[in-house]
Amino acid sequence: MSKLTDRLAVCSWSVQPAGPQELAARLEEIGIHRVQLALDPLRENPKVWDATEACLRDKRISVVSGMFGCVGEDYTTLQSIRDTGGLAPDSTWEQNRRNILATVPIARRLGLKLLTFHAGFLPHDQSDPQFGIMLGRLAEVADVFADAGMNLGFETGQETAPVLLEVLQKLNKKNVGVNFDPANMILYDKGNPIEALRLLGDWVRQVHIKDAVRTKAPGTWGEEVPVGTGQVDWRAFVATLDAHHFAGDLVIEREAGQQRVADIRFAKQTLERIAA
Fold this sequence. Notes:
Blueprint: E1 8-11, H1 20-30, E2 34-38, H2 40-44, H3 46-49, H4 52-58, E3 62-67, H5 78-84, H6 90-109, E4 114-117, H7 129-147, E5 151-155, H8 161-171, E6 176-180, H9 182-187, H10 193-200, E7 204-209, E8 211-213, E9 223-225, H11 234-243, E10 249-252, H12 260-275
Parallel strand pairs: 1-2, 1-10, 2-3, 3-4, 4-5, 5-6, 6-7, 7-10
Antiparallel strand pairs: 8-9
Helix pairs in contact: 8-10, 10-11
């Protein structure tokens, strides 16, 4: 298994690039030449992003995985994202389905083997009619990527670890696993991320390196903070990954703050100290 520091990457959307050249420049500045690439810009604005593959290859930057979003998502409050997130809303399902089908050839062109996304809030009660609807949609999306030889990672946070595990077991798709984001467990107030990782560890295909502090007002967002300054116990996190023989990528994500490049460099340094 390669060293942890050799498996670090950066989420492309974290550095807010206007195009592939700017993405490459910011990765150079950070000192990490591996990236999880947001695929929606390539689908929505090919005129700007069609040069991505050549640009990253010229800079010797490898794309470790892809990410796609869902239309209509509103992250203003926990309730708004519960209502609008992922594949759950009937009003956006067909458009999301079309977008996913259009994403597959982009991912294939880039040679990707793993795609991640937020599936949406998963019902806790299997007798809830929405549970069957969501399971059917998740199965359809999983099969689309399986047919293309790709794996799919559901991002953690919008439900507790036991609920996500139950869905994964019920879905029973070999190409489906977890993109584990410990900060999301805190931001959504869905449990202890280390305990969640112990439960889901065998399903983890990739992790996001992100930190947060829990809300003091139930029903509201927690706060994302730079890695190493929040409530994720990073030494315990890395030890738990090692206990599950995790050999995948650790992708640094920063979705808040005005100095994201500096924060990502700080996250890199934090992981390097732990791995030393």
